[in-house]
Amino acid sequence: MMADILIIGAGISGSVLAERYANSGKKVLILEKRDHIAGNCYDYIDDNGILVSKYGAHLFHTNFEDVWEYVNRFSNWYPWEHKVLAKVDGQLVNIPININTVNSIFNLNIQNEEEMKQWLEENRVEIDNPSNGEEAVISKVGTVLYEKMFRHYTKKQWDKYPEELDASVLNRIPVRTNTDDRYFSDKYQALPLGGYTQLFENLLNHPNIEVRLNTDYFDVKETIGGFEQIFYTGPIDRFFSFKHSVEHQLEYRSINFVSETVDKEFFQENSVVNYPGMEVNFTRIVEYKHFGNQKSDKTTIVKEYTTDEGEPYYPVLNDKNRAIYQKYKLEAEKHPQIHFVGRLANYKYFNMDEAFKNALDLFDTLENKIQTRHEL
Ligand code: UDP
Predict the structure, then answer these.
(1) Which parts of 47-126 are beta strand (E)?
(2) UDP-galactopyranose mutase C-terminal domain: from which residue to which, for each copy (predicted)?
(3) Is residue 309 part of a domain?
(4) What is the pLDDT of residues 299-310, one digit of tens each?
(5) What is the per-residue pLDDT for 372?
(6) Does residue 234 fall inside a structural domain?
């Protein structure tokens, strides 16, 4: 098939752009390096009959009305308010930190928001403009909770202590002055009935879209051409042959997912249990059965070990990496017909809904621009 649009990567950004262009009458070719679509959202039914996510739990949450409306066109969704427990001093406590967390860890009896605010005021460290992850946390909850819940978890997750990371990384986790134990506060919180892979199948199910799996763009780029536009969703440094990574690599973190079958109905009381201490090397254990209240005699648990090796999942946000990324960004701006989209190409810690939003907005911007050009 001769295509008008080339898309590299069949994750959220690539699949949304493919759907948008296909529906506007363009022919779209997607090249996907892996043997499946859906990027890191990919899920499947495992040997225990449980829907599991290959690349870690994906919890959809958004305040964007247009994104919510859009994703509902391609899947039915069931409400799912994600909760996380953390194992601290041998007991399971709520994270994000709320009244119950403080009561459990410090054996207190805080009763209301007023008292919780007072506790935080007495324990937090006064810092005007927190400039890194450590300052961000201790300025909100103080040093004891920082040590118990954030310092070592972050070291395991990033191989850096919070002071070596942007404040924004740790600020993803709010602090609550009530007993709300939901991980997110967004208006819409849901999971796709039938899983994410099915959602992506529906996005890509269009006669104008051809998906080529097991195809690395860099292996075939000399043999293809003639596209109106190209959308690249892979790591930005790889696109430019790592030319600005001579002294320092642009860093990414990957995860080694170690799956186990446990021969009992449930292994843990919640879908996700975080291990913020040093007693184990993994960051968390996900028990997939909890999502959608799935039934099976056995249960699948997955321990997550973050590593430098393997496919890049997370950009590592700090000044050093941002400086390297800026060089690539300037390089990218010299190629206006190539659009760099998504987490890896923008080196940003996008949530799923932000990835949807950016792809939808990019399409609208480009198409409006094109219309304006026609009008002229
Ligand atoms: N974090 C932590 N302890 C926790 C949970 C999170 O220290 O129990 C920190 C850690 O640095 C983590 C960041 O907060 O990388 C953001 O957490 P989030 O759950 O958003 O990470 P993700 O689910 O994207 O891996």
Answers:
(1) 51-53, 60-62, 77-79, 84-88, 91-95
(2) 148-349
(3) no
(4) 999 999 999 999
(5) 54
(6) yes
